[in-house]
Amino acid sequence: MLTPAAVLILVAFLIIYWLTRDHIVLNNLLLITFGLLLISWVNIWQALLLVFFLPLDYFLITKIFPLNKWRVPGLYLGIVTNLCIWLSSRYFMGDYGSTMVSTVQIGASFYIVRKLSFLISAFQDPNFEQHSFLEYGLYVTFFPQILSGPIERPKSFLKPISRTRKISDVDWYDYFHLIILGMFKKIAIADNVRVIVDRIFQLNQANIIFVYIGTVLFALQIFCDFS
């Protein structure tokens, strides 16, 4: 449930985002700031860890990867460091039973996977285009996808965020169609299938046929939830 403070922050964000829409740097900086604010809402340690280690991956990509001798050690260093950040964030969370804490844990994992995605993409592609630290930071902290994904490839994400957002560029029909289709998959299919799946897997001695049905329906539930 949204608190009054959260609603005010969201409204302020939308207003500032609209006012800065013609200034791409300010717009991207606002998105990063709001993303960090979200992850620090429940636990400040995760935000501090993320901010502190964001420059490391960027340094490896821009300074170490161009040196062929150090490309592989640089990749290993980045992967190990990010995994340590993820484990540290879980350690500092404390109460694992809280719903809000669980949500933030998912968010922390999402950010780490984004960092690894950028790092590995830059390693695999020798012609990987150099981007500003601001664009890299926005790729990692882009909050609208924090719970639903997908883990988008850097190239497909960075191209649109490097230019000014214009309402005239939006294909409203296609987006409205996607929203309605997504709501149907989530509300009409996934949420209803989940009820059946939960009942099947709560049976003490379920028939093997029910187990197969439950497994298939669970796959359908996950697909409709995430697609």
Arithmetic mean pLDDT: 80
Class of secondary structure makeup: mainly alpha
Helix content: over 70%
Q: Could you say which overall geometry the principal axes of the C-alpha atoms support?
A: globular
Name the assembly state: single chain
Overall radius of gyration: 21 Å
Largest sheet: none
What separation lies between the terminal Cα atoms?
Answer: 24 Å
SS field, number of helical segments: 9
Describe the structure.
It is built from 9 helices and no strands. By secondary structure, the protein is mainly alpha-helical. It has helices at 4-19, 24-39, 44-64, 71-93, 99-124, 133-141, 154-161, 172-201, 208-226. α2 crosses α6 (133-141), α4 (71-93) packs antiparallel against α5 (99-124) and α5 (99-124) crosses α6. The chain folds into 2 domains: 4-163, no CATH class; 172-226.
What would you say about this model in short?
The protein contains 9 helices and no strands.
Summary tags:
mainly alpha, 9 helices, 227 residues, 74% helix, single chain, 2 domains
How is this fold's topology laid out?
Elements: H1 4-19, H2 24-39, H3 44-64, H4 71-93, H5 99-124, H6 133-141, H7 154-161, H8 172-201, H9 208-226
